Amino acid sequence: MDIYFIPTSSSALNGVANGAAGGILIGIAAGVMMLGNGRIAGVSSFFAGLTGQIPPTWKEDLLFLAGLPLGGLIFVLWRGEPHLLIPDSPWVLAGAGFLVGYGARMANGCTSSHTICGLARLSRRSLVATAVFIATAIVTAAGRALL
Amino acid sequence: MNGTTIARAAIALTSGTIFGLGLAISGMIDPRKVLGFFDIFGAWDPSLAGMLITAIPVTFLFYRLSGRRSASLTGRPFPPSAPLRVDNRLIVGAALFGVGWGLAGLSPGPALEALAFDARALVFVTAMATGMIVHHTTSQNRRP
């Protein structure tokens, strides 16, 4: 099913238009976390806190994380259920999940903390992290396509 | 529970919900669109770039607005400015993260959100928690 919010004539344009529309909301959300709560909206950092040494902010962090599926449910009520192309193989999912979790902790952040919040605060570390993970993701996706 | 605690909780939940809605509208919860962005030699899908083109400047504006204040609206001080040091941990960690991201097309935010739609996301999220716990336990001497 098509989940496009703004339908346009070409699929590439669709991607950019809908990506940009969603990006405005993501930017507002990340901005409100900083302006309101003084926090970097780092999904992996919040989640990691719940799996290790529990930080004093854990209740707030959990509420932010609970908001993610809640936002998804609002989208479903509004636009209908999206059909996600999540890989079927539990081995691929488990391996990918492990690498994402381990790597995000080692690099102190994921896409939300490094690419969105980190680049918005002009962090050189985040620029390096973003360049590296997009590069290895491109190589991995190309490798998978060849197999 | 005082007013500040309630305000911070409400801000966190609202922000997370808007973030989740943004991920859904931008298509980023669908691994197909993320993997399409990585497929630069094939049918390239620019959705991820479209999302970043607005998300980063909007966040930047809020951060600049925050920078004019001495503390956040609920009184918590802002985090210290970003550290400069690029070390091996950052590079190796980001490289591993990217391999995982390129394998399944899921990063932490979309994976947690996908729990609402698709039971397969639970396998990913469980493995992600395991990866984090393994990292915590094997690098005890370092602060996360």
Automatic annotation (TrEMBL), chain A:
<dbReference type="Pfam" id="PF04143">
    <property type="entry name" value="Sulf_transp"/>
</dbReference>
<keyword id="KW-0472">Membrane</keyword>
<dbReference type="InterPro" id="IPR007272">
    <property type="entry name" value="Sulf_transp_TsuA/YedE"/>
</dbReference>
<feature type="transmembrane region" description="Helical">
    <location>
        <begin position="62"/>
        <end position="78"/>
    </location>
</feature>
<feature type="transmembrane region" description="Helical">
    <location>
        <begin position="90"/>
        <end position="107"/>
    </location>
</feature>
<keyword id="KW-1133">Transmembrane helix</keyword>
<dbReference type="GO" id="GO:0005886">
    <property type="term" value="C:plasma membrane"/>
</dbReference>
<comment type="similarity">
    <text>Belongs to the TsuA/YedE (TC 9.B.102) family.</text>
</comment>
<feature type="transmembrane region" description="Helical">
    <location>
        <begin position="20"/>
        <end position="50"/>
    </location>
</feature>
<keyword id="KW-0997">Cell inner membrane</keyword>
<keyword id="KW-1003">Cell membrane</keyword>
<feature type="transmembrane region" description="Helical">
    <location>
        <begin position="127"/>
        <end position="146"/>
    </location>
</feature>
<keyword id="KW-0812">Transmembrane</keyword>
<protein>
    <submittedName>
        <fullName>Uncharacterized protein</fullName>
    </submittedName>
</protein>
<keyword id="KW-0813">Transport</keyword>
Automatic annotation (TrEMBL), chain B:
<feature type="transmembrane region" description="Helical">
    <location>
        <begin position="86"/>
        <end position="103"/>
    </location>
</feature>
<dbReference type="InterPro" id="IPR046513">
    <property type="entry name" value="DUF6691"/>
</dbReference>
<feature type="transmembrane region" description="Helical">
    <location>
        <begin position="48"/>
        <end position="65"/>
    </location>
</feature>
<keyword id="KW-1133">Transmembrane helix</keyword>
<feature type="transmembrane region" description="Helical">
    <location>
        <begin position="7"/>
        <end position="28"/>
    </location>
</feature>
<keyword id="KW-0812">Transmembrane</keyword>
<protein>
    <submittedName>
        <fullName>Putative membrane protein permease family</fullName>
    </submittedName>
</protein>
<feature type="transmembrane region" description="Helical">
    <location>
        <begin position="115"/>
        <end position="134"/>
    </location>
</feature>
<dbReference type="Pfam" id="PF20398">
    <property type="entry name" value="DUF6691"/>
</dbReference>
<keyword id="KW-0472">Membrane</keyword>
